[in-house]
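#dry-run=false #mode=assembly
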Amino acid sequence: MHDLYRLITLASQIAGKSKATRWRRYGVGRYLAVTLAAVGVVVLAGCGELPQTIMHPAGDDARLILDLLVPVLWIALVILVVVVGFLIVSMVKYRYRPGNDGIPPQIHGNPRLEITWMVASALIVAVLAVMTFKTMSIRAEAPGPGALIVEVTANQWWWEFTYPELDVVTANELYLPIGQEVDLRLASNDVIHSFWFPSLSGKQDVVPGTVNRMNFVPEEIGVYPGQCTEFCGLAHGQMRMAAFVVSPAEFDRWVEMQQTGADPALATSPGAQVFQINCAACHSIRGTAAAFGQIGPELTGIGARTTLGAGVVNHTPETLAEWIRDPSQIKPGVLMPALGVDVGDVPAALSEDDITALVNYLEQMR
Amino acid sequence: MTQTLPVAQTWKSDVWSWITTVDHKRIAKLYLFAAVAFFAIAGTESMIMRTQLATPDGTLIDGSLYNQLFTMHGVSMIFIAIMPLNAGFFNLLVPLHIGARDVAFPRLNALSFWMFLFGAIFLNLSFFTGAPDGGWFAYPPLTGKEFSPGTGMEHWILGLAVLGTSSIISSLNFAVTIFNLRAPGMKMTRMPVFTWMTLVTSFLILFAFPPFTVASVLLLTDRIVGTGFFNPVAGGDPVLWQHLFWFMGHPEVYVLILPPMGIVSEVLPTFARKPLFGYTAVVFSGISIGFMGFAVWAHHMFAVGLGPIANGVFTAITMLIAIPTGVKVLNWSATLFRASIKITTPMLFAVSFVALFTIGGLSGMMHAASPVDMQHTDTYFIVAHLHYVLFGGSIFGILAGIYYWWPKLTGRLLNERLGKIHWFLAFLGFNITFGPMHILGNDGMPRRVYTYISGQGWDTWNLVATGGAYLMALSFLLFAFIVLKGLRGEKSAGDDPWDGATLEWATTSPPAVHNFDSMPVVGSNRPVWDGKYGGSPAPMDPAAAESDIHMPKASYWPIFVALGLAFAAAGVIYSYPMSAVGVVMIFYGTFAWTQESTVGPPARPSGSGAGH
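#status=ok
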């Protein structure tokens, strides 16, 4: 808002000072300033937080691509201004004037000129191609030794992340230590998805029947949202995820928490019983003997996750309870059944007390 | 110009005459009318989507309906709006442009139209039982039986098979017409650019659609008998589908844009009162775009994981297309240099075509660079790009054509003052809608999402885009009013209201059934202009008017055969006996077709109007 205020002030100053200029003489200065301010309002209102923009990279691949995009964009803008400028000038300058009914010069073409701009187009294309191939050759480099391997498995409509060397499995929230190259192997359990963290790297489709690879180095600590970008069915728009780029020390702490899993002391809590009976067939939590489910997302460390349902809602005890009661209210199409509401004649699997106990239990998984 | 018909005119005989017509000008009207109707339906679908996306967490419609709408919007705009709009212009103009009485195969031409109409209706009937919801690209395995269990995908596959057959037949017809029915002196190098682009487009369809039709039949057997061509679980390859689909899908883009490029290449010179700058370069650019269009399909698949070699090759060829495209844009621009420009509605649409297509072309050049595409693909940046090409390009070109050639359709002119307001609203609305989508894409908003959460910085631009969409909808309501007014008005356009250069302006508005009273003789690529201003003889010689002209006879077999094909296709979903009936109808109808007499009653030369 502060920027907005400054812009409007600046614009009105321009309007005030333009008295001596030609603009003012034509009375355009003030209009121009007002228009500028109006455009400014719209632009700034549109800005603010842009967590998913490709314009502020926090990974080496996103930065590499931006370094290609910006010059290409400038070349395109220059061509655009030249062409559209020529069209506008021509429409004004060469417009028919009443009384001037003569036939304009009948120019059928000019081979020299046409060859010139054909060659000029080819040169521009050549420059673009060289820049592009330079970037492509860097992107094609295989990950070096010491890269952190993460196996990404896409599902309708959530993500599983496995760290095979660390024996860690998690869902929808990807932890990465800053500065360490990450070597991703992407596979799908059902349809085609696409894995995209705009701040970190270009996207990569996830195709069933094959394992795709991508690698990048996270360069800035922060939380970066991402989401599926290949249309994958009903809840495609709600297949989100987040990347947490953290310090190596914090990463180690997180890995340890994931490896340890549930505190054994919790095994006797009422929520643990509810979990074993109702949830464990689909979900698993490290450290709980009978929780073996492979269908739904791994829930180890669920208490520490910031969102639920693959980035659909912020995680609070209340939203977790709502999710358990009837997840399709939050994410239509979700495969998890509604456990807390009656379905026809079938009474709800969980009472409100069960849900409270379960939420308490899950919130302690951190 | 009225034409005496041998039967008394009642509404019944009138309807029957439309059903059995084989006249290219009437088929053109049928194409344009039906395509505008489907354009309105597909446009309404987009308005529902824009309303849903106006705010984050929109609740107007659910994801299931949204996915049907965006799939049907894409399929409809491409296959049953822009393609038949182009086909309408092919029908209206090609015979007039080359000095022919009709197309080479008039009954096949009617067959193409009825197949298109039934295919399009069939596609839209899917809304009653669940429309296709896998995107216009229909990537398996999402579109396999396991993940799309309804009949929506069958409607998509069979509907496109019918529409594709229609396009293939029509392309053969126009290629043969252009090669064989040109008037004396109408060399290939003297053909109007529009007719050239019709020829290039016909070849694109001829080479692109057969492989696609085969691919979609494979997808159909995957779905109904459980073959596994594209199913990874059965050892199939989903990426194979993508190659086969985009081998049609990319040339299809040129099928949609080359004819409007042809329209603009006619409109700009007329109102600049100059010849097109560099006719040869423009024609050859169109041909080379057509050729290269077959070698760039995998730029739709940069993120699939084809590897750096494949991505590099397709990056390079895609960038090469920028050269002929750039040549076209520069030649159109140079046509305005030192001109005497009459600022009319068709001219405004044509010049905005050049500007907006340039924006779409330049953003296309950006994601031709495959690393940039890794960020932009499947985001709103692409939505912006494709609409600048297909709306700012194709639709604006088509609108220029409708205003420009309205006299040849109806004998009247559309209202110029309202037309300019229409242009202004459409131009403004278009840019407000699709301009911000570049920013949305850059800021990470993916395509094909029915909802988005707030806090992404997307809220304002989505609202702005929706506002622009409503402005555009308003402009099209105005257009509907202009067209209705233009159908009823009294004002006669005259034969040559725009001071045109090509042969259609040498005959009456609208042209008589037989088009020209005598065979035109062509001495340049601007025969009418050179007859008026160039000191050459006029292409039409009134003294040579022929007295014994026979036009092809009306026939109901085309609609009969088309109906048979529609039954055959629909029966695959509803009941196999229905398919059997359809197949019998096709064979019987085709046989009867070969047995009927094709020569109609003599058409009387108009005697006046043509050829001054």
